[in-house]
Design a protein that fits this description.
Bound molecules: S-adenosylmethionine
Helix content: 25-40%
Structural class: alpha/beta
Radius of gyration: 17 Å
CATH class: Alpha Beta
Number of helices: 6
Strand order of the largest sheet: 3-2-1-4-5-9-6
CATH topology: Rossmann fold
Number of domains: 1
């Protein structure tokens, strides 16, 4: 069974609002946009939790033409849009929405959804449903993953080859596979540098490519 991660500041909107308000101010002062896969470049790509917009700008530089980011922090959305515009990529769109609240999401379906660190942040956040029973261990992460999967279903195109690629520092491949099944199947993994400790070898970062099961 997958256990809940302890709640942390990193799972709160207040934290990310503060981070991106600060980064936005740095960007205004000195043009610093903050800290810093092959798919048909004309397909629509969406980043869940686009933060400062760095990944989307990198994809635009790589030739991708239909890019969109979504984040629940207005400061992140403003920073992403300003950074993209200042990099010459005004066509990148940024929208505000809470991925755990499907009523706040109104986006065109994307062929590829990317997540770099956003599900990690969500996993550290509070219980999304205040009325749900909080007794069983692992109940919080199950509920968070279920809400997140609703957002994936809402935003991912129904094309059979559409994909969702997630990069996580908090969850292993096996945990991600378990969290996203049965709706999504792992079809590939992008390898990162490994480390060995106590006779075990592992990765500090996991990137998994998921395909939605036909419905
Ligand atoms: C670790 S940062 C990663 C940002 C960006 N993907 C990157 O790689 O730099 C997590 C991002 O997820 C956003 N986020 C967290 N929970 C969210 C939610 N429920 N809905 C939308 N965005 C969320 C935060 O505002 C933040 O921008």
């Amino acid at each position: 069974m997958i256990e809940d991660l302890p709640e942390s500041l990193l799972g709160t909107k207040e934290h990310w609002d503060h981070v991106y308000a600060q980064e936005l101010s740095n960007f205004h002062e000195c043009g610093d946009e903050g800290e810093v896969c092959k798919v048909d470049s004309s397909k629509p790509l969406l980043e869940f939790g686009s933060g400062n917009g760095h990944l989307l700008v990198a994809l635009a530089k790589a030739g991708y033409t239909r890019l969109m980011g979504v984040d629940y922090s207005d400061s992140a959305v403003t920073l992403g849009a300003e950074y993209a515009a200042s990099s010459g990529f005004r066509h990148i769109k940024f929208e505000t929405a809470d991925l755990l609240n499907k009523d706040s999401i109104n986006l065109d379906p994307a062929f590829l959804i990317l997540d770099k660190g956003t599900f990690d942040a969500i996993s550290l956040g509070p219980e999304p449903d205040m009325d749900a029973p909080k007794t069983a261990p692992g109940a919080r992460i199950s509920l968070l993953a279920s809400r997140y999967k609703d957002a994936l279903h809402q935003c991912l195109s129904t094309e059979p080859s559409s994909m969702f690629i997630i990069t996580s520092c908090n969850w292993t491949r096996d945990e991600l596979v378990q969290l996203f099944k049965p709706d999504f199947t792992a079809i590939d993994e992008i390898m990162h540098p490994t480390f060995s400790f106590g006779g075990q070898t592992g990765q500090t970062v996991t990137t998994i490519v998921f395909n939605r099961k036909a419905i």
